[in-house]
Automatic annotation (TrEMBL):
GO BP term (any one): methylation
Keywords attached to this entry: Methyltransferase, Transferase, Ubiquinone
The protein's name: Ubiquinone biosynthesis O-methyltransferase
Enzyme Commission (EC) number: 2.1.1.222
GO molecular function: 2-polyprenyl-6-hydroxyphenol methylase activity
InterPro entries, sorted: SAM-dependent_MTases_sf
Amino acid sequence: MKQHISAPAPRMLLRLIQLMATLEQQNLMHTSQARFCEIGPGLGDASSLALDCFDIQEAHLYEDAAAARSLLEKRFTDQERVLILDSFRAKPDYYNLVMCFEVIEHIEHDQTFIDSIFTSMQTDGHFLGSVPAYMSKWQDVDELAGHFRRYERQELQDKLEAAGFTDVHLYPYGFPLINLLYPLRKLYYSGLLRKRQQTDMATATAKSGISRGLAKSFNTSFVLCIVRFFSLFQSIPYLSRLGDGFVFTCRKP
């Protein structure tokens, strides 16, 4: 996994570790997913991982932020099968696999967006993604990032099923490491929020996809070792309910 990480932010690493465990659990690893897209790939870590895990012939990375697109173009410049696009357009019945991590919470009319993803997918295609969990955990970082909401478990499941998806599985992640980091995160992001000038939601969203803050200076191997240890706890059924986000998988029937 290390070769796919651009900046080792602990929350992002926990999310990718949970994603890998989920793919193995559902026997999706190394399956043929000829047409793939990721919406809001940011720095492209998840897409890089997907290109290794799946037999992908065509990959579309949809990114609204110009700065992020520039970074993606540099990162995947030698990948002829990867196309960087500026905004998501639902091509009916086109994709076998769609990924969308930490994006839906940025969209005001989220049900319409989820519906469009369903429309873009082929029958038996898989939709994988993640969202921040529980409005009770709303923090300064949510405001800085341009979030409209955090999701409750039933709310997320209902919206995916309302779009037409079946076999919906939700996997909480983040406990206990993110919980332990709450005081530091609160101190760091509250300071940024005080310094920040008034910013609209679109600008905040654009910045959030490529901002890794202090993580840019972290040693990837060291952080990954720590995160892997703590990830063992996030799979414990009762404790997992205390997590900070949901990784989800579902299928278009």
